[in-house]
Structure formats: structure tokens, C-alpha cells
């Protein structure tokens, strides 16, 4: 029967989607849960100094690449751009730690990135490369890394990121050239410019400007709402996802079925339209991509909604951006498509599949841009395709709150320099409006995941506190020559990563701060078992003969020594070890009466992990406490000072 | 006679140039000597924290605007782009200090930028606006401000700079629209894209890549050489210019005469060429701008060298970039033009006229790019016009060492996105090669002018020193409640801007550091004459009742109080004043044993002006010394430690 054939087709379509989705969710849930989602918030937190476990591990990289391929193939409303940024960061991390020891892929000459800053720089370049590859936008990649990803920025880093994306551009260009003859499917299409609009000459007048301001306002409101709803949905999803891998897979399957039903079912609502006489492209479309999908229509007719729904996301964007096709889509088709994409984009992000937000946001934005353009067709002379571009810009500005990078990425995507002032205007308006509601979507996810992100500015309430106020807990200090047992106990019972070293009489006349030792260096020293029977100071060179600089280099994530791995005899526990050689003798310090706001600025701008608080007056122990990232987090400060102005505190919590 | 008429024409041409040049030099030498040159190095130093006198004063602004107009009109080989950046910075400064009190142009609502950081941000935005206006490149403007001008960068600043340039773009666009009908001379021409190349389809192959690598190498060598020679010439010029205004004017006149002779004389060396049959433009050119200047040739012929020399700089660039005109210029014409522009660019920069380097550099680069393109015409399929663009990129990379911003500026100038990978490649090569010779041209000028610029990175030799090593001179500290006479004497005999305040017994039990007072705040307090007969501590609120926050706000450059303006009776000199209320009680401090490299990093990253050095051990005065910007300068450290490794020191000196 007639209906049965369509139903069988749906089963085949939905079934393949479901299998692909389940496979993506399975590898994600079982191998690397950290690979779910966009990855941009996590990379952003890493570059801020939060070493979250396994965010950049090789297993995450594997799942990110294949999960993303499976996820995109499954027809979800999600993008590959965010995952490509995360992939770039993972590859950079792998290179930076000299390959993976676990998988026996090591490379000695790659081991020169053994400190925090170099590794962060490398990962920033990885992010830039990811964006450059995803959008074929090398300059946009540099700007994305600068505006969204990186927390610290140096002139040298700008130049390195630029170098990276230049290489990406040349490689991409070569591959595209190689694939131009159609050897690699859709890859070679469009060249470096994915959605070419350059043929359109844009001249605009005052009514156009008004329309664009309206578009900016709509973008700001929809963007703010999107972020608000996404936050709520992610909180619900996190409850489901916490139940374990089967729940994650089930949720993914449900979303997959809904998506399949939308993309196969909704086009039936649209009526068939006769092909325009003057269509530039073939109508109806033959093959995979094109403006005029035939779907269920008779020959010579096309189904506008199917051109949007029953298509790859990239092709749907290309169709929305296409100019000279003002009457192609019915208003109702566009409206239904917008609502469906907006909702599907919201419910898809939190599932256990690598998923980017760029594509859903561009799709939804382009759709309402085209709606506005069609509605205002009588008063504005701009093409609906250009309105779609501006709509995409406004929604990107409203959700992600990036300005320069979105502007350049859109410029490089569409090659439409004439539109630049309008794109800038619409971005400014939508960002300003959305900023009055809530934070950008990535910042919001960082907060939701509880990552201790340090903002660039200090919160206002910090001005009323001093550094000494937030120092808590019993401070554990070591002597310059300390008993092994004490060190081992301290390392076992606490999770601290930094310990002040204080020389005490009889080594010095008065107690004196030597510096700071960090856990990983202590472990290396303990493993070397250079212990002494008596507490005497050794010469520093003696230690350096025994160890090389590489021994103290920062290990890859999760690969460092652990105190549980070391075992000591009772005799060894009674011996002494000299900490002078491994102590950082120039730790950054603040006086206890230093304003907390200024201490936070110091901590953030210099990218510290520990900040020592020293007493203001003499005749006291030479160290008051240690500040770490967690001591600057709003929740921690609120616990200590519940009396702080709650309104200030609320805004702080939002900003923390 | 025939020759006489040409000679009269030369006199008229050279004479007008000379009068305009003399006028430019006169206003520059007599009104604002600081307006000479590009202004970018000075703005860069200001944004680094060097408050050089009158760099951003209203008189400088005036001379910069009119001097630049006169200088460009005089036919010099110089650009208006650098001066426009400086102009933007001056206007921003004027707005930031709430107008000019000297010229009775004040505005109260503009007085909210009364601290260093806000004013610096505003001036950074001014720079961005200047570039955006000069090149009609809004995104390029933001990137220029980020890559070249600013020393500190925050996410909020990116967004503000973007806002500024968006406004510039919209205003420019409106003015161009208004001028399109030719009401404003050449202004409306070309729209937002000044040198449109978008019609050219660029496909390139491996031989093209080799040609481009060659171009990058040439650019690096020529760029390094240009910087080297410019440094030498500027040192010679500075001796001449130091002799006073008449010498400056004379030097300018000499350069003007040479320039006039070159642009009028050299075209005579070229033979006339017959107009091509298939020329897109009218040939020979009618009117002011065009590819085919008639000059002395008979009708139907044109003089290629005159099209380059006897033209505005902008038109010469447009002619060089023009595509489809491969055989337009003789090789010899291009070669002579290149040598002349290279040398004229070098001798023009140091004269007492506002002069930018972008235009000479783009001109020279485009010329040798076209030469290379013509020479390699047999093996490369790229148009010589595109080679000219790549040549300009390579020379910009070789002299200015900017990457991302040059790339985006060129993209926005030419609208040629397809060339982006090639432009990136050529920039990378030329910058890398030139960096092995010397520093970027702006950095070099900053060093030559002796401005204490703080580099983002600490020099290697600083690792061998500690903060206490470089503290010099007798330290002047004040008591919390200090005698007026002592303060006045200290302010009179020293030029210091910051003084530590130390509470001593009997006010406290032991000597204790209160904080830091700065000169301008002390002067405000002294002017208020809130003196006491006895040394007792007052309540802070008492001071705050008397003064408003505005009284302590940072004054405009050169407008603050001076100690010479204040007069005190003998009785007042014996009285006391309480400094607690105006002291900054949270100054940043380092321990004297802190590595100098880390102290420099702290100083630079936080944008400090004073850094207090505190003792490591108790039982000593609570303050060891104060570090300022000058204490980190290589020369100062070299004076203190002549024994430091001279090789290290040499590289330090280059980088300092």
C-alpha cells in the first residue's frame, strides 16, 4: 500500500538515526562521559586554570571525534563546531604532554611543554585550529580563541595562534583542491567560503536599519530565553544522566526518535509548491543537496519544509542564506521550522553525545531572520537571504555573546564584506539586550558544572574583605628539613597541592619563610628516597645531580605520581628530607590586610594556583595561610560571611 | 618655449608642495613638536603606562589633524593612517579628561574617566577608531588596537573597541552614501572597500606557493633593512631637529624639494607606451585618478611611471593592485619607483610633519610584489595585481611585524577572501625572517625615544637578580601623621611620585607599613590645609567630609597641582597632617628575596606604577624600598651590575 511504503521509509530513516544515536551515546557513556556536549566550556575552564579530570584525555579525544561523526550522521540538531574545538584542544594537549604513555604513543621531542603556561598556550592554539577547520575561517579561529577561550593573552600567543590557523588554512585549501572533483563526497564543495553570498550587492537605507535594529532586539530576547531554558533543561538532564550509562543512552534514543519524527513528519504539513520558472538551481532537486526538495510532491513541485527539515544542517543553512529566492518558503513552513529547531536545539544539547551549539543557533537565527525579512519585504529592500544572515548573527550574539569573533567568522563564512557594518550593529544590539538577562551560554554551563572559574574582574563585595578574612582551615607547613613521616601523613590526609616551607630555629635565628613546595614535586623527591638520618641542610646541587628537570616537569592529566603508590618502611618514616632544593623560593605573597579584590586581581592576572598570605606585623609565624582558586569562589565566601549584602551576593553568585 | 612651459609647471608643482610642507613643519615645530611622526609608538608607550608630556594634549591633536592634511597635500611619501590613530587617541584622551580646561571646553558628564585604567581603555578604543576610519576596516581596527597598541587586554575592552569601530563603520557608511554623487571629491569613491580585488578568482598551485615563499623572504629582508636604516636616519635627524624649529623647517623643505623632483622628474625617464586596445578603463586617463596617466605623451599613449609617481599615494596603490593589467608597467619603471619610494619613505619619516608609515610600506611592498609577479609570470598563474597585494603584506609583516591585524586590514581593504591563506603565509614568513634581524619599527622607535617601555616578558638576566638588588637611592618614608614641613621638603627636593607611609611608635607598638601615598593626593591634601598642632590620628571620615572623590581624581596631562604652586607659612610648616585617609592601604608588595623576573611580571601584568619591597626577616624597618618602571629598565640594571653577562645583556638591551 501507498501509506505503508512511506511508513517503511520512516522506519528505515528513524531506525538508522536511532542506531547511530545509540552508538554515539554508548561510546560516550561508557568510554568518556567527559566528551558529551560542546566541550567549549570545559576547555575554557581548563585555560582558566581548572585541571578537570580527563577533559583532555586521549579517550575523550577518541569519543569526541567518533561520537561527533555518529551524532551528526544521526540527524540530530547539533553542530560539529564545538566538538572540533574540543578535539583541537585534546590533540594539542596530547602533543604537549609528549604523546600518551598509556597507549604507548610517546614522542620525546614533544616533551618540551612541561609547564602550565606553555601547555595552556598550545591548547589555545588547538582551539583556534578547531574553529579555523570547522568554519574554514582562519582569522575567526584566532579571534575565537582570544575572545571566548583564553583567559590570559600575550602578544606572542596571538602570533602563535595565527601561525596555527595559517597552517590549517593551507592544509584545508590543499584538501579542498584535492577533493574538488567530487572524490570526497560533499567536502570539496564551496571552497574556503562555505555559504557564498558575495554576489549580492547590499545597499541599504534607513528603513533597513530599523528592520535590523528590530532583528537585534529579537535576537537578544530569544538568545536570553534560550540560555535560560537551556540551563533548566540541563539541570533536569543532569539528574537523569547521573543514574548511569543506560539512562544516558535511553535519553539519547528518545531525543533521536523525536528528532526523526520532526524531520520526517513535519514536512507532510506543508503543501507542494510549483517550481519557479526562473529558478537558478534545478527544481526539484536531484541528488543530496539543493534548494528544492521533492519529498512527497509530484514532479515539477517541491516541498519547502522538506528542503529545510529533510536535509543536512549545513544544507538547510545554505538554503536559508540563499538570495534571490524570496518566495521560496511559505511563512508557515519557516515558522514551524523555527519552533522545531529552537526546541530541538534545547533538548539535544544535554544528551550524552558530542554536540555543538553553533549550528542550531545559526539555523534558528537564520530562520527568524528570514521570517522578519519576508514580513518586512514591503518596507525593506534587503534580500531575505541577507536577513537570514543577520538573524543568525543576532541569535549568535544573543546566546554566545561573542562579538568580534562571530563577526569575522560570519564574514569568512559568507564572503560578504559589504554587510559588515550591519552585522556589527546587530551583534551589538543583541548582545547588549541579552546581557541584561543572563550570562553567555558557555559561562552559564561553566557555572552549572561547578567549575571554579575565575572571572577577569573582582566582585564588588570583595572590596569589603581582606585576604586574611577568607583564609580557612588548619594550615599545614613543613620545616626546611622535615621528617618523612610528617610529609607522608600530610599528603595522605589532605588533598592540598601546595605547602609553605618555613625554616625554624636552630636552622635560622627566627622563623623564616623559605617558599612553597607543591605536591607533585614532593612526591618525586620522596620517590627518590634521598633521606637523611639527621635534620641537616644539604647542598642544593646534590639534589639536582640525582634528578633531572624532566622529573619535576608537569605530568599529563591523571598521570602523575600518587602518594598511594609510594611505600616507606618505618625506618624511612623516621628519617628526614631536605625541601630547600625543590621549594619555589619566590612565591607571590600578599599581606593579610590586602583587599581581597586586589588579591583576586593578582591571582587572576598572573594565573596563580597558590597565593601566600603573610602577616602584617612581626613576632608572629611568617605565614598566615594559603589562598587557592576555591577561596575566591563566591559560595565559599558566602559560607564564611553570610551577612554580606545578599543582593550584592546574588550578582556575585551569578558572576562567580 | 616648450621646455620653459614644463619648467614653469614644475615650479608651480614644487612650489605648492614646498609651501604646504613648510606650513606643516611650521605648525608642528612651533605649536606641538610631539605631533611629528606617526604617533603610534608614543600611543603604544602611553598605553604601556608612560605618561609622556603633551603626547595627547589638545595642541598635539590640532597639529596632528592639520599637519597631516598639509603633509599629505604636499605630496610627501607618507600616510595619514598613523596620524589618524594618534588623532583617535588624542580625541579619546580629551573626552576622558572631560574636555580641555585650558581652552574652556569642559563637559561635566565626561569626567568619569578619572583613573588610569578607564582612560587607557578609552584611548585604546580611540586607536581602534583611528585605524577603522583610516582603512575603512572596523574589524582590522579592533585587531590593531589589540595586537599593536594595547599592553593590557580584557574581554570587556574587546567589546568596547568593537562597539567603537561599529559606530565608525556606520558613520563612514552614511558619509560615503551621502558623498556618492561626487559632492565630496574623491571621498565617496570605492565605498567601504578601498581597493576592490574581489572580481579576481584566485586559484593557485605549487609554483605559486614557491613564488609566495620567495616574496615572504624578500619582504623579511627588505623589512629588516628598512627598520635598520630608519633607525640610523632617525638618529641623524634627531641631531638636526634638536637645533630648533628653523632647522626642522629647513629639513622638511629639503625633503619636500627632493620628493617633488622625484615625482616630477623621474617619469621623464620612462618612454611612452601605447594604450592597450582592451583596456577596461579610459586610456589615457582623464581627470585626477586612473591607471593611464598621459603626462608628456601624445594622445593615445600613456606614461606608466607617471601613473605611479605623479599621482596621489592612494591612487598609486590602486594602480599597483589593479588586475588584468599585467603589461601596464615596464620593469624599469617599477624598479625605479621601488627604489625611489623605499628611499623617500626612509628620509620622510623623521621630518617635523605628522607622517604615517603604512602608505610608504604598502607602496614599496606592492611595487616589488609586482616586480616579482612580472618576473615569475611564466611559472606562476597569479595576476601581478595579486602579487602586489602579497608584496604589500610581506613588507608590512617585515617592518611592522603585525600579523592578524595586517591580515584583516588587507582583507577589508581588498575584499579578497580567497587570498587569505596566501596573505597569512607571506606574513608569517616575512615576520619570522625580519624578527631574526631586529625589532618591529614601532618598538624600535619607542626604544630610540628612550621611553621606559615594559615588555610583556621578563628578560632572562632578571632571573639571576632579586627585587632587593635593584632598589636604590635613599628611601623617603612618611609617618602616618607627618610634619607638613617634612612633606613639603620631600616633595620639593625629589621627583618621586609615591611615598610609603609607616606608622611608628607611639602610634603603634612596632613600626608598621600603612600603605602608599602618591604625590598628587598629597598635594590635594596639602592644598586643603587640614593641619593639626599635635601629631594625633584623625578619623578618616573627617577628611572625606572635606574632599570629594573628584578632588583626588587623576588630572589631565600637565594639569595637576604642582608643589611650586602651594605656599605655606612657617607656622603651617611646623604643623602636622594625617596621611592615613589618603594612603592606599593595599599596595602590592614583594619580599626582597623575590626573583626580579617574577617581580617584573607582577609589575607588568597588573599595570603598576609602584611596587613596595618588604623585608624578609622581622626586626627591620617594615619597608626596604620602592620599585618603579625605571628600576626594571635594562640600562639601570646594567649600571648597578656591570658584571652581568654582556651577551645576555645585549639581548636584554635590545628587548628593553
At CATH level 3, the topology of the largest domain in chain A is Clc chloride channel
How can the largest sheet of chain A be summarized?
Answer: 3 strands, mixed
CATH superfamily of the largest domain in chain A: Clc chloride channel
Unreliable residue stretches of chain A = 646-656
Largest interface: A-B, 65 and 65 residues
CATH class category label of the largest domain in chain A = Mainly Alpha
Counting structural domains of chain A, the number is 3
Q: What would CATH call the architecture of the largest domain in chain A?
A: Orthogonal Bundle
Radius of gyration of chain A: 29 Å
Distance between the termini of chain A: 61 Å
Provide the residue-averaged pLDDT of chain A.
Answer: 84
Helix content of chain A: 40-55%
Q: What is the strand content of chain A?
A: 5-15%
Number of helices of chain A: 25
Task: Name the quaternary structure.
Answer: homodimer
Large-scale geometry of chain A: elongated
Question: From the helix content, strand content and strand pairing of chain A, which structural class follows?
Answer: mainly alpha
Identify the strand order in the major beta sheet of chain A: 5-7-8
Number of strands of chain A: 12
